[in-house]
Amino acid sequence: MIKILTYSDVLILSGWGLVSPIFAVFVAEQIPGGNIELVGLATSVYLVLKSFLQIPVARFIDKHRGETDDLLIMALGTLVVSTVPFLYYHISSAIQLLLIQIVYGIGAAMITPGWNAIFTRHIDSHREAQEWSLYNSMVNLGAALAGALGGFLAEKFGFQTLFLVVGAVCIAGTSLLYFVYQDIRLAEKGKKIPWLG
Questions:
Q1: Buried b or exposed e, range 70-97, using 16+ CB within 10 angstroms
Q2: Which residue, 9, 98, 114, is CA-closest to 64?
């Protein structure tokens, strides 16, 4: 399960890594009335919403036994976040950007508590440092490669094409959560999970 969660996150965060390093360029150059001030405001809207909303989400999933609710809320949040690049594709004003950032913040707030809870419960005992390091290394390497590729795609094909690629990669990462769901269902029924041994 740890491997699947890691692969899913690598895809999703690498997808976002395609656009994150050049997001300011997109806002300043592609959105009417866009400037660096708008970039800062858009980033703040996303981070403030994510920061405040993930606390009640965490409380909710902690109140419910089992991991199905953790995963379903996380998967819903991941789907929401996966729609954001497609929304960027159609953006035409600063107000739309801020509204999209609200959607992004809400989706991200739904992901973090459940993901952390499931990953923490299933990490191998006495291999915590190694598995967290492997996860972080894979995510960072994916984002590093994506950053360079994202700049190339935006320059060569434009931001609209880039957003379609980001959305597709995020959806691919989200689809892997189906296998985590299957594992959780089997585990909650007391069955042995085939690839966990």
A1: bbbbbbebbbbbbbbbbbbeebeebeeb
A2: 114
- Print the domain residue range for 143: 2-196
Q: What does the alpha-carbon distance between residue 88 and residue 48 come to, in Å, rounded to a whole number?
A: 20
Contact in structure between 71 and 185 (CB atoms under 8 Å): no
CA pseudo-torsion sign 91, 171, 67, 115: negative
Strand stretches in the chain, DSSP E: none
Q: Write out pLDDT tens, residues 153-163.
A: 999 999 999 99
pTM listed for this prediction: 0.85
| One-letter amino acid for residue 111 of the chain | I
- CATH number for the domain harbouring residue 123: 1.20.1250.20
3-state secondary structure of 49: helix
pLDDT, one tens digit per residue, over 182-194 is 877 777 676 544 4
